Amino acid sequence: MPPLKNNPGAIEAQAPEFLDFLISASPADRQKLYLTGLDSLEEQSKDKFQKSFCDLDPQQAGTILRPLLTALPWPQDLPTDPVKNFIAQVHEDLRTATMNSREWAAAAEKSGHIFTRGSRTSGFYWRPIDPISEG
Question: What are residue 39's DSSP bridge partners?
């Protein structure tokens, strides 16, 4: 996810590092989805370019990824193809991790575009609630 308006992108928001943690703590079926998907990308890369997927330049990676992108009318309607399903899930996970990051919240706070529910909360999950002052 690239930076949007004055908000950080996935790299700046440390979304890849968060996904490493998320997948390590996820149920076996989610871990299998990621492992199978990553293995497929690696295999396609070696078949097409004779090198690892992580060594591809952006144009080469796009050659592999573009055919796997699928428009989803509803988030629950994931593709039946396992690799397309993986790509759709990764896209959603990266977007969620980026938009729920501290870096995204700090950028929103700095720009004054904070989502609020009432006058005292930010709407972001990591802001702690002080039970003494909130009471």
Answer: none
The token pair that represents 30 in the structure block:
């989610």
Give every CB contact of residue 36 below 8 A, 6+ residues apart in sequence. 82, 83, 86
Sign of CA dihedral 78, 82, 88, 92: positive
Say if 23 falls within a structural domain. Answer: yes
Distance of CA 44 to the CA centre of its chain: 22
- Classify residue 9: in a domain, yes or no: no
Does a structural domain hold residue 95?
A: yes
Q: Number of folded domains in the chain?
A: 1
0.85 cut: is pTM over it? no
- What percentage of the chain has pLDDT greater than the value 70? 81
Residue 10 lies in a domain: no
